[in-house]
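Record now logged underneath.
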Amino acid sequence: MVSDRLFQALRVALMMLSTLLTQTVCAQNSSLYPERPVRLLVGFQAGAATDTLARIIGQHLSERLKQTFVVENKPGAATRIAMEALSKASPDGYTLAVANAVTTVFPTMFVGMSFEPNKDFVPITLLGRSPSFVAVKASLPATTYQEFVAYAKGAKLAFGHPGNGTNPHVAGVALGKSLGIDLVEVPFKGNQPVAAAMAAGEIDYAMLEYESARPLVERGAIKLLAVTEPKRYSLRPEISTGREVGMTLEIEGLTPWFILLAPPGLPASVVSLLNREVREILKISDVQERLLKIGIEPESSTTVEAANYFMAHRAKMNTLLERLQISIKN
């Protein structure tokens, strides 16, 4: 009995010593950071908006910090694969991740999974947002949001979305319920297949990011009726906001957004360095232009603001999922 207790005490002491030594070494090395290539994990395939965003940020970090920042794609499981790899990585700054809004609903989506700021990851800064629009097929007899409301109330409409638990999914269901639409949900694997299906007349409405639908909008195959952001979109300023046309405010801001994350335990000096550098990068006019071309409006923050935004969005999503009785368990 005594030997077992002694063994357990020694085991705990060794674990505490190991953690202390790791933290000390990280703190000592942080002033030299980065000394070797840094991985930027992305939970999507190459070419996705999150991937392109990561490559733009990585390119400029490489130039500014004189070290390679390389994107490593780990697609699948609604980005869980990439985020689990991040949470298990060494907290030395050599593994980071560019994540999107779906991470806020991980505990609801995956049984037994925790994904809490400063426990499972460290939020570095927000990176930007992709405004979503209420979009309808060209043949639907509505050219304004008000006409859509008049047509849709009590109607049975096919609603397309890029997957359970995504912002476009939850926002579209909330909109449909608020208007009394008899919804037929049609899931797809991504926004572009949703846009293609709408252009083909297979679905009636969806919440689409501008860039995923731009060519189809420009040739008249899809109509955009309102943006779900608090302010008008800079590339399509003629389109009213949801607030301006009387759309339910509970979906305002439910749009894809992006955040830079690090493993838990990253030294404060490295967090501060990365936050400062990325915020400066997002001020560069060329970076802003490149991001706007892929439908992302740059937006940075402090680390505290990033954590608060993450948790506020989680609370909003959980409330909507419960009220709308949307199950996203995997």
